[in-house]
């Protein structure tokens, strides 16, 4: 028999004053009520009720135990009420992980609007270019760029992740403007350390079998913002996410290059674990992000910073 059910029936017997009244409340027979009480007594190794042919009363242990049962049942009811509330209203902590560039340039600026719309939700945004295990590391959702391999996740399509090649006007004035990928061999090209050998400066129609027409970079970083700043200071040519460079290009601080050779945009998805009943905090975030960065969303204007 279920222990919690037996506790509920025991409390009902005490409150109603009889097995018959408790049996009617739970729509079971008085005999079954007696079996629930007997099971509790066997577990405890003590009598809970002193029964005679005319009346029943709590033993000393029964008096203490019934109060403990009331507390336990009240805590369970509160927990269930809280869980039900979280299922009906967006509330609680939302943990999201995203690549550094997209997270800092796109997700973070929007979060004020999301949190204003849902004041009972708090957000924890982790920016990391590695692929995290959502379940093991306790994240509600992740933004992933590139081909997906984990079929166990639900994937919602976002706008493709486009790249751009650019340099500062001062750099181009000193070193000239490259017209083809082959010209990059004479330039300082800033390297992103997360790229593999087969991705590093692999440009369309470059005609280079190893995909590396550039010389060994003198400045490498695992952070796109660091490469952006180096390019702004005129050190070299950078290839990074269009979203990271759009404001500088719009302001004329960086000049786009080799537009016909830029790598094709990569797919981008919002992924989350399969759940038959996802919480409102997650479903509202999904809808919020798709409205702004889904395939049909209008791209936001470049921010001039």
Automatic annotation (TrEMBL):
Residues 1-59 form the HTH lysR-type domain. CDD domains: PBP2_CrgA_like_8. The keyword Transcription regulation applies. SUPFAM superfamilies: Periplasmic binding protein-like II (SSF53850), Winged helix' DNA-binding domain (SSF46785). GO terms for molecular function: DNA-binding transcription factor activity; sequence-specific DNA binding. Keywords: DNA-binding, Transcription, Transcription regulation. Coiled coil: none annotated. The keyword DNA-binding applies. InterPro entries: LysR-type_TF_proteobact-type, LysR_HTH_N, LysR_subst-bd, WH-like_DNA-bd_sf, WH_DNA-bd_sf. Pfam families: HTH_1 (PF00126), LysR_substrate (PF03466). Gene3D superfamilies: 3.40.190.290, Winged helix-like DNA-binding domain superfamily/Winged helix DNA-binding domain. Belongs to the LysR transcriptional regulatory family. This is LysR family transcriptional regulator. It comes from Janthinobacterium tructae.
């Amino acid at each position: 028999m279920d222990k919690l059910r037996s506790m509920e029936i025991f409390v009902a017997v005490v409150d109603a004053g009889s097995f018959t009244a408790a049996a009617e409340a739970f729509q079971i027979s008085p005999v079954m009520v007696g079996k629930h009480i007997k099971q509790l007594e066997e577990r405890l190794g003590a009598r809970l009720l002193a029964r005679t042919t005319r009346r029943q009363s709590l033993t000393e242990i029964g008096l203490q135990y019934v109060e403990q049962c009331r507390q336990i049942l009240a805590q369970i009811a509160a927990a269930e009420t809280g869980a039900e509330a979280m299922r009906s209203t967006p509330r609680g902590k939302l943990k999201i992980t995203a690549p550094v560039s997209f997270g800092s340039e796109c997700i973070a600026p929007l979060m004020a609007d999301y949190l204003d719309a849902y004041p009972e939700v708090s957000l924890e945004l982790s920016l990391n270019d590695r692929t995290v295990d959502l379940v093991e590391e306790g994240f509600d959702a992740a933004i992933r760029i590139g081909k997906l391999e984990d079929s166990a996740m639900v994937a919602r399509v976002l706008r493709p992740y486009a790249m751009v090649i650019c340099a500062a006007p001062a750099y181009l004035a000193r070193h000239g403007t490259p017209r083809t990928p082959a010209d990059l061999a004479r330039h300082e090209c800033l390297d992103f350390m997360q790229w593999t050998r087969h991705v590093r400066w692999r440009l369309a129609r470059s005609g280079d079998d190893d995909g590396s027409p550039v010389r060994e970079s003198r400045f490498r970083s695992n952070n796109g913002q660091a490469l952006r700043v180096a390019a702004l200071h005129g050190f070299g040519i950078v290839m990074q996410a269009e979203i990271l460079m759009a404001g500088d290009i719009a302001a004329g601080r960086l000049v786009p290059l080799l537009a016909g050779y830029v790598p094709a945009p990569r797919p981008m998805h919002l992924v989350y674990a399969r759940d038959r009943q996802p919480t409102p905090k997650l479903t509202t975030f999904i809808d919020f992000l798709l409205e702004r960065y889904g395939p049909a969303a209008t791209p936001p204007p470049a921010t001039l910073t």
